[in-house]
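Exam revision sheet. Question 4 asks you to relate a sequence to its structure. Input first:
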Amino acid sequence: MAKLFLFIGLLISFSSYSQQTDYNLQDKAVAGGYDVVAYFSNKVIKGKKKFTTTYNNVSFRFSSEENLNTFLKSPDKYIPQYGGYCAYAIAAKKTKMETDSETYEIRDGKLYLFYNSWFSNKLEDWQEGDTKKLQQKGDKNWEVLKYKKD
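Answer key, structure tokens:
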């Protein structure tokens, strides 16, 4: 009987582990190590390793102890949408794409990150399109993509 409970426990643990959200971990941290709380003050600040926490089994870095504590009080408020992958790519292409941590938007109280290179700024594409429709499509696509590791 004890072996059965051990087996069930391992099965539950494995199932939980395999269903973890896939986060974009550039520089081994969400948002490329940028302070996700600072974005909500319209600041783009690289986090410091000494102000790091783990949430949902991934690292988040902050520029100050104050921002770290703010995050710890309500982490889900600050987590980038779509695991920190490019919001436009998730919505329009149903694919995961790296981001430029300095290209972002706060919309409806949520943080969205975007790919940006010399010739392709996906934030501009996002804002020029029907953003509400893109958000809805992104939310739907993320339900399919969020557990898949690329």
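Marking note for examiners. The longest helix spans residues 2-18.
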